[in-house]
Write a structure and sequence with these properties.
The protein is mainly alpha-helical. It folds into two domains: about 80 residues; about 90 residues, no CATH class. The protein has eight helices and no strands. It is globular, with a radius of gyration of 17 Å.
């Protein structure tokens, strides 16, 4: 839904927003979830949650490929904000690639990483360019989405899928990585205001 919100704030119309949401959901949820379901059917993973750290590499690499495909598709859309949306999907792919490396040695919480990235992006789009507020209306959404972090973190620990340290690391990664990446893209002149 984040991509639809950003498209709306960039000036996209209702049909364009639905197209952006459809594309982003397809490549960030349906395709990766479908790949994990296929891995489950093949007996390569024990559950859709892929709790075994050593079995996460292939699903994560499939997710990276899906994100990068989405970035290419979004870059070609004639909708307001398509450059931002495309680069944001590249950031998601890059961060998932980093997760592949970390997961070789340690089971970081991908759920915490993902949920913490949403308020980070929203905050950046509101104020992160270091100029006057771009989309100040996004700040309440950033606050609301930040309120989702504690329940997700608690659930991951309560279900014993992660330790508190793994959840904290995922949360910090989700908060810091998008801010740093979007700032670098803007500083390099690759990302302008939508």
């Amino acid at each position: 839904m984040l991509f639809g919100v950003l498209a709306a704030y960039a000036g996209a119309g209702p049909g364009e927003i639905l197209m952006v949401v459809g594309i982003s959901m397809t490549f960030s949820a349906v395709v990766p979830g479908g790949y994990i379901a296929w891995e489950l059917r093949q007996g390569r993973v024990a559950s859709m949650d892929v709790r075994d750290r050593t079995r996460r590499r292939r699903p994560l690499l499939a997710t990276v490929a899906s994100y990068l495909t989405a970035a290419a598709v979004l870059s070609l859309l004639p909708v307001p904000g398509h450059v931002l949306l495309s680069w944001l999907m590249v950031c998601y792919g890059f961060n998932t690639g980093l997760t592949v490396l970390v997961t070789r040695y340690w089971k970081i919480s991908i759920h915490a990483l993902a949920i913490a990235g949403v308020p980070s992006v929203l905050w950046f789009m509101a104020y992160g360019f270091g100029e006057a507020a771009v989309f100040p209306g996004l700040l309440p959404l950033a606050g609301l989405s930040a309120m989702c972090i504690p329940p997700v973190a608690w659930a991951r620990v309560r279900l014993r899928h992660h330790t508190p340290t793994q959840v904290i690391a995922g949360t910090l990664g989700g908060l810091v990585l998008p801010l740093a990446e979007l700032w670098l893209l803007h500083a390099a002149g690759l990302l302008a205001f939508p």
